[in-house]
Amino acid sequence: MLTVMMECRDHEAELAHTLSFLVAGAVEGLVGDVVVLDHGSSDGTSSVADAAGCRYYGKWDIKDILRGARGEWLMLVEPGARLQQGWIEEVGEYITLGKQPARFTESRHHRRPLYQRMLRKVPPLEHGFLLPKREAVATVNSGMSLGDIARSHKPRRLTTEIIPSWVARRATA
Asked: How high is the pLDDT of residue 38?
């Protein structure tokens, strides 16, 4: 089983966008837990998380959150990101057979212009991140973010494409 984790700050629309694609994973029994870690949102982020049945934390310590995650694997994503068709099968197979962290592949249809891809530093969760819970618990320190966890591991690349969160932000702007 998989625990999906996201950090939010005024990401109400983006959170709803991401939660909608996770429903299929929950129906298939892959996603058993969704955790929303908030950084002081003033919009309806907490309402969206509550309505979707997520565990929502306004104040939290990452070590406690990871220990309390129900899944044996963690999927860290940005609010607004969406995985493309086939993700349930690939992730299910990977967490059954794989042992090391992984990232998803950048969507071919939602890419930044070449000069932006070359000049900017890619945020650590732009392509999602998948890792065993035990590995995250062993390496995390209080005060770390989900992005810090992703930065501290060398992942494999999965074939499933992810539409990055900036696409959803651009659409709602």
From this structure: 94
